[in-house]
Amino acid sequence: MTDFETIRVEISEGILTITLHRPDRMNAFTGQMMKDMVAAFDIADADDAVRAVIVTGAGDRAFCAGADLGSGSATFDYTKRPDRLEHGSPIQPDGSVDMSHPSVRDSGGRLTLRIFNCKKPVIGAINGAAVGIGVTMQLPMDFRLASETARFGFVFARRGIVPEAASSWFLPRLVGISQALDWCYSGRVFGAEEAKRGGLVRSIHAPEDLIPAARALAKELTADSAPVSVGLTRQMMWRMLGASHPMEAHKLDSRAIWVRGQGGDAKEGVTSFLEKRPAHYTDSVASDLPHFSPWMDEPDYQ
């Protein structure tokens, strides 16, 4: 297993657990953490032994306290952050800014788009404070379970910036436009109970029960299902949230059923049911997940 600077990764019983690991900084987010997490999701997608992913934070204080503010007032002024200009400067000779330049891209968005593109179910186990990118990185996860001590905050307006990490797409779809605007306009920090009432989290647990509950959910979701079917279902469901007409879903469903119906998993699924025995699925998520649409190969999604 690869060693990472800012996270810990463990694979056990078919579950890859990513632990944000900067406990001295309340697991605050950095560019290196973005790179480490993207690499960890690459590992999850490439390993057929991994059936699901759990993301949590180290310690009992924070899941992720947002962007590391160690650069002070220059934290969000990327023209003053050499670490933000690894792809060169977007500033043109005439002083204008090339807004399509790679260095303009929000690092939180690069992470959330990678999670969005994951081929395995993703569960957030939110063990403490989760503000800024600490909460927006959760939005493309399929389920969010919270500790009783968890706190959430879309605090961007209180820092003089705006929501990032593609949260203007994800958040209203998860909780509705009015709830999303309430949390983002005010920038207030709120507890797990409000997060559950607002539809952000699925369930609340005692701190010591959080990871066991997340692991139990991961196993329940994947124990009896064909991994390729789960992976393709995840891709289909998330992307159809933005479809303009149900015909788009019909076209995608039809292609998926056509291809999957001819595969070994479909034969095994029917045969095992008729023979009243557990199914043994052999198709590989890493190599057998069908590609139907440009979004499955588009490099800008990572």
Report on this model:
This protein is α/β, with parallel strands linked by helices. It has two domains: 7-222, Alpha-Beta Complex (2-enoyl-CoA Hydratase, Chain A, domain 1); 227-301, Lyase 2-enoyl-coa Hydratase, Chain  A, domain 2 (Orthogonal Bundle). 37% of the residues lie in helices and 14% in strands. It has eleven helices and ten strands. The chain has helices at 31-46, 107-116, 133-136, 167-175, 177-186, 192-197, 210-222, 227-240, 246-261, 264-274, 285-288; strands at 7-12, 15-20, 52-57, 62-64, 122-126, 129-131, 143-147, 151-153, 189-191, 203-205. The strands form two sheets. Strands 1-2-3-5-7-10 form a six-stranded mixed β-sheet, sandwiched between helices. Helix 1 runs parallel beside helix 2 (107-116) and helix 4 crosses helix 5 (177-186).
Task: Briefly say what this structure is.
The chain has 302 residues and is an alpha/beta fold. It has 2 domains: 7-222, Alpha-Beta Complex (2-enoyl-CoA Hydratase, Chain A, domain 1); 227-301, Lyase 2-enoyl-coa Hydratase, Chain  A, domain 2.
Explain the layout of strands and helices.
Layout: E1 7-12, E2 15-20, H1 31-46, E3 52-57, E4 62-64, H2 107-116, E5 122-126, E6 129-131, H3 133-136, E7 143-147, E8 151-153, H4 167-175, H5 177-186, E9 189-191, H6 192-197, E10 203-205, H7 210-222, H8 227-240, H9 246-261, H10 264-274, H11 285-288
Parallel strand pairs: 2-3, 3-5, 4-6, 5-7, 6-8, 7-10
Antiparallel strand pairs: 1-2, 8-9
Helix pairs in contact: 1-2, 4-5, 8-9
